[in-house]
Design a protein that fits this description.
By secondary structure, the protein is mainly α. The chain has one domain. It contains 8 helices and 5 strands. It has helices spanning 3-17, 28-34, 39-43, 53-62, 82-89, 107-115, 129-136, 147-166; strands at 63-64, 69-72, 76-78, 127-128, 173-174. The strands form 2 sheets. The protein has a 3-stranded antiparallel sheet. A two-stranded antiparallel ribbon has the order 4-5. A hairpin with a 3-residue loop joins strand 2 and strand 3 (76-78). Helix 1 packs across helix 4 (53-62) and helix 2 (28-34) packs across helix 8. The chain is globular, with a radius of gyration of 18 Å. The model has no long low-confidence stretch (mean pLDDT 79).
Length: 192
């Protein structure tokens, strides 16, 4: 298996580990607020699971980047489409597009408006996984968050899932740009 596919297997396993309860717990009010968005399905993955490394490795070996599909044998190709995304993740495939230019956004103001602070932005680009876990990952389930405070936790939870589960990178940082689409928490379910 080539280096890129090995990295893919490791990234899949590492990103799934980010949902374990000891790493990031989801507050019940956040779960309720995200019901119907598709993110509630991904948050169910938080229960501990065992990874079948040989199976993940076998699937990764069949992935053809150049053909944009999985190739089994000489003549069998499996293409993943939007319908597959819906069935596998539960995320909606119909709705508003997530399109924009990060260079046109004041990231400091965006973080202040959406998360209540700009301390998430460091000298290196992106928001730190460690910062997300420290600030939002261990909320007391007994505390009743409401209003703007609850919305901040909802935004942080969705940002965490996007950056470390749906679109993970090999760094421990993620782009704050997605906060642009999380300003109005009630509109989250409108996006594809």
């Amino acid at each position: 298996m080539d280096h890129h596919k090995k990295r893919f297997v490791v990234d899949v396993i590492d990103s799934a580990e980010n949902l374990l309860p000891e790493k990031f717990s989801f507050h019940p009010n956040v779960l309720a607020k995200l019901y119907g968005t598709g993110f509630e399905n991904l948050m169910k993955l938080r229960r501990p699971s065992k990874h079948n490394l040989p199976l993940i490795t076998a699937v990764a070996e069949t992935c053809s980047i150049s053909q944009r599909c999985f190739v089994f044998g000489e003549d069998t190709k499996l293409f993943m489409g939007l319908g597959d995304v819906l069935r596998i993740t539960g995320l909606p495939i119909d709705g508003l597009s997530i399109i924009g230019n990060e260079k046109e956004v004041d990231l400091k103001k965006l973080c202040e408006d959406c998360l209540g602070t700009d301390e998430c932005l460091s000298t290196r680009s992106g928001i730190s996984l460690t910062w997300m876990r420290t600030k939002f990952g261990k909320l007391n389930a007994e505390v009743a968050f409401e209003g703007e405070e609850l919305d901040r936790y909802v935004r942080a939870t969705v940002l965490y899932i996007i950056g470390f589960i749906i679109l993970p990178t090999n760094s421990s940082r993620m782009a704050p740009f997605y906060l642009t689409f999380l300003k109005n928490v009630d509109d989250i379910k409108s996006y594809a």
